[in-house]
Specification:
- The chain is of the alpha/beta class and 188 residues long.
- Helices cover 40% and strands 16% of the residues.
- The chain has 7 helices and 8 strands; from the N terminus they run βαβαβαβαβαββααβ.
- The strands form 3 sheets. It has a 3-stranded parallel β-sheet with strand order 1-2-8, with helices on one face. Strands 4-6-5 form a 3-stranded antiparallel β-sheet.
- The two termini are 17 Å apart.
Length: 188
């Protein structure tokens, strides 16, 4: 544990590691504190699907803008990680959102409408097209929506390897450690 740091980041999941990475790029000294191992919590359990728009409402302008920016920035981050020696397994080959009920079909129609208006390249697939794209799919599929900009990455593997380049960059800006026993000086 360093004697001093500019920023203390609690948690070595995707958010904590991302913040440390961005701070390191700016030359800001930070310390990531993780009580277990990196990606031990929710970040290590994720399926690694990069699809922020499906989970955002357009009515929340700030969240929606952040989701769009994240979608645009993820390929850049993936390349930077590869350059740092970590292959995140990033693949932007699209994601199928599948409907097996009439309620799910209606939901897909709503999302397809506004995502289509935004020029995101979404496509409506009938059951035959879905099976052609994914031959092992359950034959009871009614329809699917294909979203070509969505991607996947190897989340847990990437996050568990992320501390190594952070520590390397940290010769100037970042330290990585396990959570210490806390002691405070004064009121801080």
């Amino acid at each position: 544990m360093p004697d001093s740091t500019d920023v203390v980041i609690i948690g070595g999941g995707v958010i904590g590691c991302s913040v440390a990475y961005q701070l390191a790029k700016l030359g800001i000294k930070s310390t990531v504190l993780e009580r277990a191992k990196f990606a031990a919590g929710e970040s290590g359990a994720t399926a690694g699907v990069v699809a922020p728009l499906w989970h955002l409402e357009r009515s929340s302008e700030a969240s929606f803008a952040l989701g769009m920016r994240s979608l645009d920035r993820f390929p850049i981050l993936a390349k930077e990680l590869v350059d740092a020696g970590i292959d995140p397994g990033f693949r932007q080959n699209g994601v199928l959102k599948i409907a097996f009920s009439h309620e799910e079909v209606d939901e897909l129609k709503r999302y397809l409408a506004w995502q289509g208006e935004m020029g995101l390249g979404v496509a409506w697939l009938d059951p035959e097209e879905v099976v052609q794209r994914e031959p092992e799919i359950n034959p009871k599929v009614l329809v699917a929506c294909f979203r070509p900009r969505k991607a996947t990455f190897k989340a847990s593997v990437t996050l568990r390897r992320w501390p190594t380049p952070l520590a390397d960059w940290g010769r100037k800006s970042t330290k990585v450690s396990k959570s210490p026993d806390w002691s405070f000086k004064g009121e801080k």
